């Protein structure tokens, strides 16, 4: 009772020059207009923080696989992007036809079990590290890029986080398929997309790429 006036005394959080981040949400999220419960989340600050100090629950989607870079991206998303009450979705996209892929399984069909187990074990790791974040694991069979893009839209993700490879000496001549995948996601996904790469040992921090920044160095 009478808390209405009190609510206004919260200091407004400056959005830290985040106009670049917001321009996407205004343009890229046409769906926001459709749902009235989203209307109060119309102008999020950095990570979905609304002007009045209220924090809107958001869904952070991380694309995982067996690589170390995917695990680094996942842990970065967990520690830097997901807040209490947010939903962290680990998405593992499996190639449509397993026979075309060299499985490293020894003996009978044990290798197939690796797939759901990866998502499950990484999910368990996230829950142990940060229990206040809700974690879910999704394993979907299909072509990687279309599957990720459609899940972003379907799940109404606020942020998509991807692992990024180290640039190879030949990267100016040859683009790897994973670089191509990351760039396609950054330009096409219907939400803020961050590609994350852990800096080499001794340097510290992470390199972050978005639609607006390439290899932005975050010492966090």
TrEMBL record:
Check the UniProt entry and state the signal peptide residues, or none.
none
Q: What Pfam families does this protein map onto?
A: Usp (PF00582)
- Segments carrying the region annotation (Disordered) are 1-50
The record's section on CDD domains has: USP-like (cd00293)
What's the superkingdom here? Eukaryota
Q: Where is the UspA domain?
A: 58-197
Ranges of compositional bias, category Basic residues: 27-37
Write the protein's name.
Answer: UspA domain-containing protein
Species of the source: Ensete ventricosum
Task: Specify the taxonomic lineage.
Answer: Eukaryota, Viridiplantae, Streptophyta, Embryophyta, Tracheophyta
């Amino acid at each position: 009772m009478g808390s209405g006036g009190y609510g206004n005394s919260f200091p407004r959080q400056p959005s830290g020059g985040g106009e670049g981040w917001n321009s996407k949400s205004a343009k890229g999220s046409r769906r926001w207009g459709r749902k009235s419960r989203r209307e109060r989340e119309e102008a999020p600050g950095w990570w979905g923080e609304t002007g009045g100090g209220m924090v809107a629950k958001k869904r952070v989607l991380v694309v995982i696989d067996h690589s170390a870079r995917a695990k680094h991206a996942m842990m970065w998303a967990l520690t830097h992007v997901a807040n209490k009450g947010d939903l962290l979705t680990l998405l593992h996209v499996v190639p449509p036809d397993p026979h075309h892929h060299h499985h490293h399984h020894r003996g009978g069909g044990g290798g197939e079990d690796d797939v759901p187990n990866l998502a499950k074990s990484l999910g368990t790791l996230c829950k142990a590290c940060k229990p206040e974040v809700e974690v879910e694991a999704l394993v979907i069979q299909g072509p990687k890029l279309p599957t990720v893009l459609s899940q972003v839209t379907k799940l109404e993700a606020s942020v998509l986080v991807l692992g990024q490879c180290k640039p190879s000496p030949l990267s100016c001549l040859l683009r790897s398929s994973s670089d191509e995948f990351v760039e396609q996601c950054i330009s096409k996904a219907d939400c803020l997309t961050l590609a994350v790469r852990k800096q080499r040992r001794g340097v510290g921090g992470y390199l972050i790429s978005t639609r607006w920044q390439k290899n932005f160095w975050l010492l966090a």
